[in-house]
Amino acid sequence: MQRDTVQVVNAETEEVVGYVDATSPDLALVEALARMQLRARRRGERVRLRNVPDELRGLLELVGLADVLAVEPEREPELREQLRVDEVMQPGDPPL
């Protein structure tokens, strides 16, 4: 998935219900997302936005819709052990 593709997720089922291109976010995109949330609420559902780029996140916060549109917080990258790193064994160490 591209970096500027926002996932629209059903808040109850966690099912991805759509994708939105946020390559160049503007107020038209904000309006479309707000209307999408309004339609979902009329059906008794809610949607959340996942993978929101910083530019769109800032725009949603500026117009006061970040909470209404349920923008998921950014996740911290997981810290993982580097691949292909050989650990040095000391004499007398037990085998792994």
TrEMBL record:
Residues annotated as domain MlaB-like STAS: 26-65
TM spans (from-to): none
InterPro entries cross-referenced by the UniProt entry: MlaB-like_STAS, STAS_dom_sf
Domain of life of the source: Bacteria
Pfam family, one: STAS_2
Name of the featured protein: STAS domain-containing protein
Origin organism lineage: Bacteria, Bacillati, Actinomycetota, Thermoleophilia, Solirubrobacterales
